[in-house]
Amino acid sequence: MITIKVILIGDHKRKSNTFYVNLNKEQPLGNLLKSLNLENYYEDGKLRSDIVIMINGRNIYFLDGLNTKLKNGDEVLIMPIVVGG
Questions:
Q1: Could you give the CA distance from residue 41 to residue 34 in angstroms, rounded to a whole number?
Q2: Cut 0.85: pTM above it
Q3: 83 DSSP assignment
Q4: CATH number of the domain at 2-80, please?
Q5: CA 68 to each of CA 6, 11, 82: distance values in angstroms, whole numbers, following the listed order
Q6: Distance of alpha carbon 22 from alpha carbon 61, whole angstroms
Q7: Residue ranges covered by each domain of the chain
Q8: Cα 82 vs. chain centroid, distance in angstroms?
Q9: All residues at 6 or more sequence positions from 81 whose CB lies less than 8 Å from its CB, including other chains
Q10: Which of 48, 83, 79 minimizes the C-alpha distance to 65?
């Protein structure tokens, strides 16, 4: 079993923005999003352009995107891109 730390920024539907998820084995990031009911964060297998996901401080665009394998102790930060003035 592996444990992943998840930090959600800008998701007001949850009681806490930081929590831990236990998975049976290493899995792709996309599976974690499905298990958290965050499938609306991606379309056609690609992350929406207004969402940023970092794994251990690295943007998933520089990793393997939604196919990036999560390992024990990984920290996943999920946040919307905020613009405006």
A1: 10
A2: yes
A3: -
A4: 3.10.20.30
A5: 15, 22, 24
A6: 24
A7: 2-80
A8: 17
A9: 49, 50, 51, 52
A10: 48
Given pLDDT bands bounded at 50, 70 and 90, which one contains residue 10?
Answer: confident
- Say yes or no to pLDDT of 12 above 60: no
Write phi, then psi, for 24 (nearest 5 degrees): -65, -35
Please give the torsion angle defined by the CA atoms of residues 45, 49, 55 and 59, in that order, rounded to the nearest 10 degrees.
120
Rounded Cα distance between 15 and 26, Å, is 26
Radius of gyration of the chain (CA): 12
Parallel, antiparallel or unpaired: strands 27-28 and 46-47 = unpaired
- Between strands 58-59 and 51-55, the pairing is antiparallel
